[in-house]
Amino acid sequence: MCGIVGYIGNREAYPVIIKGLKRLEYRGYDSAGVVLYDGTGLKLAKTKGKVSDLEEKAAKEISTGGSIGIGHTRWATHGVPNDVNSHPHFSNSGNIAIVHNGIIENYEPLKKELKKRGYTFQSDTDTEVLANLIEDVKKKDNLKIGKAVQVALNQVVGAYAIAVFDKEKPDEIVCARLGSPLAIGVGKDEFFVASDASPFIEYTSNAIYLEDEEMAIISLGKPMKIRKIKDDSLVDPYIQELQINLEQIEKGGYDHFMLKEIYEQPNVITDTYRGRLHANEGLIKMAGIEDNLQKFLNAPRILIIACGTSWHAGLVAEYIFEEFARIPVEVEYASEFRYRNPIINENDVVIAISQSGETADTLAAIKLAKEHGAFVFGVCNVVGSSISRETHAGAYTHAGPEIGVASTKAFTTQITVLTLIALRLAQAKGTLSNSMFHRYLQELELIPEKVSEALETNDVAKAIADIYKDAPNCLYLGRGYNFPVALEGALKLKEISYIHAEGYPAAEMKHGPIALIDEQMPVVIIAPRQEHYDKIVSNIQEIKSRSGKIIAIVTRGDVQVKELADHVIEIPETTDALSPLITTIPLQLLSYHIAVMRGCNVDQPRNLAKSVTVE
Ligand code: F6R
Question: Model's pTM, two decimal places?
């Protein structure tokens, strides 16, 4: 979490940094700050609140000139969000400024030692400890700032992406990463440093992504040097041409990124299967799968590890893999998996799912699985992310940047990729009949069109949102493939509207949650006309007879559920296994409208961050 931006060049640094921080606010938004150097001294402005609050404060407190600076938008880990704990932090001399994304785990013993040596601390942060540690090693051994950063980082345990500026070496920024992402934008006579490329995409499409345990010294007029932090060896900078453009990271006329991303789903699902799904020829072509087909086919089981929405996509995949390819699947929260001494066999295939590709728990679970000799396959959205690099092979979801903190298009594109994999394995194993295989391929090709139709439920979803926007609680129920969709629907509602919501398998209701049902309780039931239709109709009757308010997601033309439900949202028909790609759409819209009507910050819900790079 946290976003960092740095600039060194010939432009005014301040507007570049502010605009960049706004783009990175998805990573954290409880406080923000900037340090600028204008050739005379360091100018600091920082505050609790958003980047817009920082702008107001900076306008009053500092002159914003200068063409070098570093900035930060924070998601608090150590120390409450307040002005003092906001970044940048200074060393005691006031010469060294630092912005940091990550956690210094051994900051307490380091702080104790520094205190003994006379250092004092203003904040409760681990970052201020690092600033003083750098100063201490610099002074002790009379080092230049780059070397001092390197020596200090070798004493640090934890995760970091940092940008460091030293007033005594005012023509350079030192940056480094371990476990948190860091990209360097390489322009003509200018450099940018940022947590991702979005802050500099309009200035340059050339980027270097630092690898773990690498540091770079960027300075004007000198070739950039990238080194390994541990052994000081030089690394050849690999400059990538970025694939994203400015339009993709702007709202494009929508009120919120979340809404834009919901509406992008027909296109991005098409992007996800483009070149992979060949329905007419009856083929699925995915290089990452073909190259490792035997590993998948020989696997006694598939383990899926992920967090949050990605974990929900994993649950959908469990149903699909077992049904299509008859391979046993276990789905685990990465955070549990990594700490519970799991049984991992050499022949197991592990699929790690992550939109950001930076989730700390998922990354750690991957490393654990690799240590046990398992083959790890990544399903990521962000190209070049840590998880995409850490896994043995993988498939990108091609959803484009997802900026709204609540995942929407990531979920549907993850399911699309996983369905393609399951179908390819089923074909190779012969576990699906030829006709079923072809039918699924053709149906998958129609999904974007059906998602577009499902988006037409927007007005109905909005009208229902208006009725239930003040509900304190909400239940989501689904069966089979749509049980994970119920979990996802509940997660969407709670994270952006702060209404307490729970997802359950519909039949599980009578084992407890039914006690919650009364005339105040809205119950969202995913009830398309499919295998368990009669069972779900019975569940609806059970709720109805206890006066619960029923909002049902039904197949267009449904009669039975319509008679029982208080409200229905009608969606196009598809096969059972592919239905999550459609049923989830009205649930996203419902949550979105409820959150907007409650005056919540949809794209930046409280306490959350898009990329959870701390455990
Ligand atoms: C929910 C949401 C989170 C993420 C979770 C995993 O809308 O966005 O639950 O799904 O933090 O993130 P990734 O997929 O980036 O690993």
Answer: 0.83
